[in-house]
Design goal:
Elements: E1 3-6, E2 18-24, E3 28-34, E4 39-45, E5 49-54, H1 69-73, E6 80-84, H2 87-96, H3 99-102, E7 106-111, E8 115-121, E9 126-130
Antiparallel strand pairs: 1-6, 2-3, 3-4, 4-9, 5-8, 6-7, 7-8
């Protein structure tokens, strides 16, 4: 059963963020969350997999009611979560075989105003916040 955990609680200020995403072979994945008060930069470096889905079409049914009501009630205030035993984990395990465990991949989810971004990587992101 899919389980979510808040990571870096309280680090990213609660706000309505829009997403600017840059991904490439040289720099890796950099996600900027932009609001009128903050710029939050999450640098994931090289990632193994990523998917980004418009939140308007998925939040109600996509996670199959597996997300704790706590996170829904607080309107996903933490912005970034780590997911365990999720559907995306299963997909990557089937696709990549033993590489999932060999690389010790971790599954992160970022919830923004308009997108849900899921990332599979071996490392935690480097987070910088600018006012």
């Amino acid at each position: 059963m899919e389980k979510w955990k808040k990571i870096f609680p309280g680090l990213i200020p609660r706000d309505n963020y829009e997403v600017f995403l840059k991904n490439g072979e040289e720099q890796g994945l950099v996600i900027k969350l932009l609001s009128k008060d903050y710029v939050v930069e999450l640098n994931f470096g090289m990632v193994s997999a990523m998917r980004m889905i418009d939140e308007g079409i998925i939040l109600n049914d996509y996670f199959d009611n597996k997300i704790s009501n706590e996170y829904e009630k607080e309107n996903f205030s933490n912005t970034i979560y780590e997911v365990f035993d999720g559907e995306f984990d299963d997909f990557i395990k089937k696709t990549g075989g033993d590489l999932y465990d060999y690389c010790k991949l971790r599954h992160f989810v970022i919830i923004s105003l308009n997108f849900v971004i899921e990332i599979m990587t071996a490392y935690e992101p480097v987070i910088n916040i600018y006012e």
